[in-house]
Task: inverse folding
């Protein structure tokens, strides 16, 4: 996920899947053409990375407290 985010920021394009379940298509969103949509997709990726990292830290703290 973080590699995809890095590539999106460097190249100005992000790959995403759109459409209803079962009819999903892979779409490339370019910053020059759709800057708002590109920004929201990058923001969503950053949010997911922060949530996953926060969850991992919380689990490690809980395990350290339980063992200590």
Result:
């Amino acid at each position: 996920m973080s590699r995809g985010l890095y590539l999106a920021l460097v190249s100005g394009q992000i790959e995403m899947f759109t459409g209803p379940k079962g009819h999903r298509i892979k779409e490339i969103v370019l910053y020059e053409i759709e800057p708002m949509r590109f920004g929201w997709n990058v923001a969503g990726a950053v949010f997911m990375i922060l949530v996953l990292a926060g969850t991992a830290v919380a689990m490690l703290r809980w395990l350290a407290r339980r063992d200590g």
User: Anything to note?
Assistant: The CA atoms of residues 50 and 56 lie 10 Å apart. The first helix runs from residue 2 to 11. The chain is about 65% helix and 20% strand. Residues 2-67 form one domain.
